[in-house]
Amino acid sequence: MFSIGLVVSFVLSAIAHYSGLVSSTVQFIISCIAILFVAGFLGKATESVAHYAGERLGGFLNATFGNAAELIIAIFLVKDGMFDVVKASITGSIIGNLLLVLGLSLFIGGLKYKEQTFNIKLAGHNGSLMLLAVIALFIPAAFAQSLTTSETANLSILVAIILIVAYLLWLLFSMVTHKNELADEAVEHGEPAWSKGTSILFLIIATVMVAFESEWLVGTLESITHKFGLSELFVGAFLIAIIGNAAEHSAAVMLARKNRIGAAVEIAVGSSLQIALFVGPVLVLISLLFGQTMNIVFTTFELVAIGVAAIIAKSISQDGTTNWFEGVLLLVVYCILGIAFFLV
Q: pLDDT tens for residues 59-102?
């Protein structure tokens, strides 16, 4: 029944998008239903891959595939010179993963298990990387007023290169040289749904479906937001970020519910770090190909949002143990930011 629902909802969503026979509101509703099925498919594929590859690598693959779709969409926005929308969506992705996804994962997992644990050394390194991301975004914004446009562009390019190198070194450190030290304890999770090859194939297929469904869903947002009078900042930082990553979010929550908190944390925190330290900087370099450099100077609202998200996420996750109330704390901060962005 799930497979039938997945195929039927995805096909109906495609027809609604490309035929133009239904209103944007109907397209939005169909896409929301479809992305729930796609989320379940992606979550099951991630869980199966994690069984073979381990919690960390499984979560990393899920975050990477999810961010790849977002990167592709952002490249087209950069090509059109829509830099403010790109920065707002980057902000939304970072705070969405750190507060909404991690918060829901800790809350839902904590309702079933009194306490869940993951590698405390990994938690410490994740916290340090979060602060690095905040510092790297604050410095260009602080110095931008004293620099010319060309100097700001040069600073952005150099910071982007440094962050990409730092992220690649982190992957080398965490996946190769200190792999065993940062691994979670082996936990028995039963038999995987599919074989290793089938799991990887389904993960790729699910990611492609997520990319299409996210684009169709985001495409309906403009008319929907006009009806409710929402600001571009709120749409970029919250709606696009939530909907565009809905499947990835659901996968983390489902894994936490099955006491696979290590993979859930890797999806949530790992995805935020990947956006801040790799995807964002890569977009800066890609903008050079289109003849206009996208600087890395974020607005005060965006910096405050990223800063508070990193601080509370680091504070909660640094001990390597989680419970449902810590999830509530993250969700409370996300709601406060959401109200503030809505009113701006």
A: 787 777 777 767 777 887 788 788 887 888 889 889 989 999 99
d(CA 164, CA 160): 6
In the 8-state DSSP scheme, what is residue 220?
T
Query: Beta-carbon neighbour count of residue 178 at 10 Å?
Result: 14
Average pLDDT score over residue span 293-303: 90
Helices (H), ranges, the chain: 2-19, 24-53, 55-79, 83-95, 102-112, 120-143, 149-172, 196-219, 221-228, 232-234, 240-244, 246-257, 261-274, 280-289, 300-317, 324-343
Contact 30/16 with Cβ under 8 angstroms?
A: yes
- CA 140 – CA 294 distance, rounded (Å): 13
> What was the pLDDT predicted at 55?
66
What is the rounded average pLDDT of the residues 18-42?
Answer: 84
Of 264, 259, 269, 306, give the one whose Cα is nearest residue 123.
269
Q: What does each C-alpha distance from 1 to 14, 48, 77 come to in angstroms?
A: 20, 20, 37
